[in-house]
Design goal:
Layout: H1 4-14, E1 20-24, H2 35-40, H3 52-91, H4 99-114, H5 128-134, H6 136-139, E2 145-149, E3 153-158, E4 173-179, E5 183-187, E6 198-202, E7 207-210, H7 216-227
Antiparallel strand pairs: 1-2, 2-3, 3-4, 5-6, 6-7
């Protein structure tokens, strides 16, 4: 279960013992909202802030690794084209187009078009879940949130730090909370560890899906509680 620091901090800010709690994240990229909606919400960040080492790694990847990959691919394509011309010259027939590849491309485009929200939320930016998403990273640069359940509330807490240890964090604070007539948790017990998710569902019909649940024992207890 959650370590002592986390439990003590949770009791302090809630004013009571939590029924269940779990660290979690929005486990997929937040889709791009309409510009006017984003502007009206203050044009907040839609991505978490990463450590500088990640940016350094990205620079090395794009300026060193990618050129090497492109040069290798270019060399292979030239070899294939030269060998293809040699075969075409022998048969006198042009190479048929690869219809399977274009078909797969169209299939992927259709799949992306069918779910523009990528399963993150219900899709309506004007409802509770959409408005919460627009302000998600304004509460904290870290993607991690602590969802805490009490007998009559659902509280979402965040740490002001960019990086934190879910087992030792003791500076998180409540950033938003809902009564049980405003929101509920929808989740199933027994989900595979590492892939478990749950939904924060609101009274207006909107919902937000959470994943990357931290601390397996906390996650198991949390899902058993909400599914019971």
């Amino acid at each position: 279960m959650a370590k002592g620091k986390v439990q003590r901090r949770a009791r302090k800010i809630l004013g009571e013992e939590p029924v269940a709690l779990v660290w979690c994240e929005i486990h997929k990229p937040i889709p791009a909202p309409p510009r006017d909606v984003h502007r009206a919400a203050g044009k907040g960040r839609l991505k978490s802030r990463h450590h500088w080492l990640l940016y350094a790694g990205a620079v090395v990847f794009f300026f060193v690794v990618v050129p090497m990959i492109l040069m290798g691919n270019l060399g292979r394509r030239l070899d294939q084209r030269l060998s293809g011309r040699s075969r075409d010259g022998q048969t006198g027939q042009p190479c048929p187009p690869d219809t399977r590849r274009s078909g797969r491309g169209r299939s992927r485009e259709r799949d992306r078009g069918q779910d523009p929200t990528n399963g993150v939320f219900d899709g309506d930016w004007n409802l509770t879940a959409g408005q919460l998403l627009l302000r998600w990273y304004g509460y904290s640069p870290s993607p991690k949130r602590l969802v805490m359940l009490t007998r009559d509330r659902i509280c979402v807490a965040a740490s002001p730090r960019r990086r934190l240890s879910p087992t030792k964090a003791d500076d998180f604070r409540t950033v938003t909370e809902f009564t049980l007539d405003q929101a509920r948790i929808e989740g199933e017990a027994g989900q595979p560890r590492g892939y478990a998710t749950f939904r924060l569902a609101f009274a207006d019909g909107s919902w937000l899906e959470m994943g990357r649940l931290g601390e397996p024992e906390d996650a198991d207890h949390f899902l058993r509680t909400v599914s019971g």
